[in-house]
Amino acid sequence: MAERCVNEQVSAASTDRKASTAGQPLCWQHRLFGKQLARCNYVNDTRKSIDSAAATLVHEDGRPACEIVGMYFSFVNPGATCDDFTRQLVELYASVNGGGGGSGEKKKKFEVVHVVLWSNVTEVLDFDESFRIHVADLPWLAVLNRDYERKTRLTRRYRIKAGVPTLILLEASNGSIVTRGGVERTIADPTGAEFPWRPPHPKAALEDGPLLSCGARDSNEPMLHEELRHCFKGIYFSAHWCPPCKAFTPQLVDTYQRIQERGHDFEVIFVSSDRSEDSYNAYTETMPWLRIPFNQEERRRKLARAFDVQAIPTLVILDPRDNIITLDGRAELIEDPEGLLDTVLPCMYVTIRNSMHGVLLLPSLKKQRELIQEGEDCEIQFGESVLLPAAQAYRRDQPDYDLNYDDPEDDSLQFYIALDCETSDILREFIGLDDAVPLLTAIDIPRGLYIVMEYGAEITVDSVQQFVDGFLNNKLPINKIAAVHKTSKTNERMPA
């Protein structure tokens, strides 16, 4: 059964790739979800094939068929943990669309794309049958059950937690994220009176008043946000009454101080969820950074909405232009404090360490192109010195990041420094790289391609820049990653 699913999803993905290369570039809906989606109320009819129940989010002339796309991740599991919210979402869907849900060529206000997953399933199931049962009579669309690769990519891309229903709202016009907290918003506003719950822009709230000094800061002088234009920033949502916050804050203080000692421009702005000013004052006495005043409750609330904060503690990392580097800085710091210290804040490059937790390595493997500089731990400084100028030049050429936008064609170039460790060995073996250092390579795992700088060539700031330019302009010799292409060919030969 698993082999059949793999074969079917590879065929679907291959069809999309051929379509995009043969004609016009795919719209964001097709890049993200595929050219065909299933109509749930047809899929439930066992007399119809999945293909005959196909639907799309885009009209033939390229116009989006709705205003807002809700990407709904739910799970088939013994506890039926998602069923209650699914019923609430059906009610919201009907309410927002005026009861009928819209039909034909008329643009609907709201369309849902259901991504059905499985969690805690120990028995062998008929996955196609359980999929049909799970979406029975639902009025919206679903990612094809056979498109396993796409569902896996979406799950990793949006960091979906197993067993937890998640609703992410997207602008149908361009794919920008309206909110990641659709479940919470639906529960709080079941009829959709304020739908689609667009958050305020965070920059306005950051600039709306002074940033005060916390008690452990060297200077007591207040600052304005515009004075931090040169800084990386951590927006820290926390509270004194919250035990996880009180455990995490000392870790953040330690990392903050070490970043300062290394001479990096990094500042933290504390956004309180404290219930009283006394607890707020007691908490900020231990902090060496800046804070939003406690009496500016609306400003604090706007920031929480703007960054879609669902729980505390939350650490959002911004670059000097207020582009989001990560919404989950807390998890990265907890799992690998040195990784955050060495990578997220100098930015632009990542140090691959022994830990196989996947925060630093796996996100790039799933969707991004990589540039990797191999070297010993003692040579990290050298790696920084030659990679950082090219990385900064590349970043300067990118458009300003919309804080709520997540490009469905996310193809950004990431820069990595790989240590002499097990992770690097695994990556070398997978790609087929020789055991040589220093080695500069560009890797595009989704397409199964890699490029290597000429062996023996001196790695300098100039040579790295030339290599990056050549890679971006497709002017360098390309090698195939045998493991990727071998797997693809094997899947294509599997019987349906």
Keywords:
Thioredoxin_domain, seven-stranded mixed sheet, Thioredoxin-like_fold, Glutaredoxin, disordered C terminus, NXN protein, disordered N terminus, globular, thioredoxin-disulfide reductase (NADPH) activity, Thioredoxin-like_sf, 496 residues, alpha/beta
Task: Write a brief structural summary.
This protein has helices at 2-22, 28-33, 40-43, 83-96, 127-134, 148-157, 182-188, 202-207, 243-261, 277-284, 297-306, 329-335, 337-344, 362-367, 380-396, 422-431, 461-472, 482-493, and strands spanning 37-39, 54-55, 66-76, 108-118, 141-143, 166-171, 177-179, 212-213, 232-238, 266-272, 290-291, 314-318, 324-326, 349-352, 369-374, 413-418, 440-444, 449-452, 479-480. The chain has 496 residues and is of the alpha/beta class.
How would you describe this structure to a colleague?
37% of the residues lie in helices and 19% in strands. The chain is built from 18 helices and 19 strands. Strand 9, helix 9 (243-261) and strand 10 form a beta-alpha-beta unit. Helix 1 (2-22) packs across helix 18, helix 9 (243-261) crosses helix 13 and helix 15 (380-396) crosses helix 17. The radius of gyration is 24 Å and the shape is globular.
